[in-house]
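As promised in the previous annual report, we have extended the structural survey to additional targets. Below is the entry for Ribonuclease HII.
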Amino acid sequence: MARRTTTDSPLLFDIRLRPDFTLEAAAKRDGLWPVAGTDEAGRGPLAGPVVAAAVILDPQRIPGGLNDSKQLTAQRREVLFTEILATATVSIASSGAGRIDGTDIRKASLDAMRRAVCGLHRRPALVLADGRDVPPGLACEGRAVIKGDARSLSIAAASIVAKVARDRMMTRADGVFPGYGFALHAGYATAHHRSAILLHGPCRLHRMTFRPLRVDEAEVDALPAERPASR
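The corresponding structure token record, generated without further manual editing, is:
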């Protein structure tokens, strides 16, 4: 009979990260204050902007329940969005489909993050950026924080602000470009959205460098030549 062993050490992949103020507090001890967190929302959709937020939290007035925006319900994000704006220094910037198609989504996202930081009315001494890259062109030190929205409260707050701001933009876009269902899917490649593109064609909010909207030259060359009309 096989013996079962137990352990009081949970498996690493069972541990769920929760953001805290450790990175910010360490920076403050090193004389780097204030600290801003920055994050973006909307890298993956077929339509709409990528939206970035930068947030400097007040250590004495941090809203309770801050977390990676993807771990929160839409209703909870809305509540926290209001609380963050009431207690923190916040700036929002975006890069539209034209900028995304003219460069690429990575560069457009980083540029939106840079402009969000530049828009803060308090100048940070350090910027904590979610992901693997630091936005180029910052006027202060920047540090990339992988899974930062699950590790830093400042980045988590920025992720919430960026997500809510973008969702509201796409809800308004639904009234300007009816028929695509932007209020339902926020521009992501759902079956409903793909069907709407086939029916109506793309609008100016669509990212034409994203599949399936992008058509490569090789694919154009493979299309059958148009036959002349018979007489």
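The CA atoms of residues 22 and 93 lie 26 Å apart. The helical segments are 22-29, 74-87, 97-102, 105-118, 153-176, 182-185, 191-200, 217-222. These points will be discussed at the next consortium meeting with the crystallography subgroup.
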